[in-house]
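Box 3.1 A note on notation
Throughout this textbook, protein chains are presented in two layers. The first layer is the amino acid sequence; the second is a token string describing backbone geometry. Keep the layers aligned when reading.
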Amino acid sequence: MAELIKKDDLKKSDIFYSVAITFISAILSTVGLYMLIYPANFAPTGVDGIITMLHYVTGFNAGIFSLILKVPLLLWAWFVLNKKYVCYTLIYTILSSLMLMAIEMIDVAMPAVSLQYQTETDLLIPAIFGGILLGLSTGLMIKIGASTGGIDIIACILQKWYPHANVENLMAYMGYVIVGASYFVYEDMNSILLSIVLVFVFEKSNTVILRDHRAAYEVKIITEHPEQLKADILYTLRHGATVVKSHGMFTEKDNFMVITIINYRQLPELMKVIQKYPNTFVYYSEVVGVRGNFRRKKNEPVL
């Protein structure tokens, strides 16, 4: 009974967390689009780019176009994609659309205090900070297993039908077409260049969110001395390791591969350890993220 209650509480906390993240993502997107991108006269990629151009041409509220374009896509996705993905993406779409409607009405009602960033010289500022906000918004939604809606939905549906299709490439190609089309709307090469800057910053800030903050190195050590290395790794660096038997193709000798994950700052310390053992080869690569028992506690015994 207690286990069921704990599981139920865990589900409720997960839902609350996901809804809170969705709300924050909608705020970030609204601020980035309305306050920075719209007044700078250029379009981001994706469906938000189409919405931005429609808003520029017609003058109608972008929130209305967001609902018109994204909700039908989500209804289509409901029958094809994961229901959780669709639900949270729909919540985000409704929230961000309502926020766009509300912020424009507030801005119109308070003409003396403009909520939009106005500039004729520092055009890079809207592209850079708009890209940061949209990237953070998208990254947060991906973190909870959803999205901000748009061409990623189309790409995922296409991949469902064509499993071997590359979703990233599909999204990139559709994004290029939208950015290219924006030239005919704004009739200014600056709009293309600003969109490219935004896309670059967007990808970087998106990566920051998706990347695990416990970044580390994966180290692979080819050695004939796995037992001696054990003490250094377990007791000095306080990390675990995996030992795999290996065979040298050039030397024709049996040896061992020791695989371990260490913190960035521990790499110089490990390199000093390796110097103690002759005929040892080591190489390492950056790890994007880590899950599980990464580092032993101070008093945790070695099994």
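Residues 2-210 form one domain. The first strand starts at residue 216 and ends at 223.
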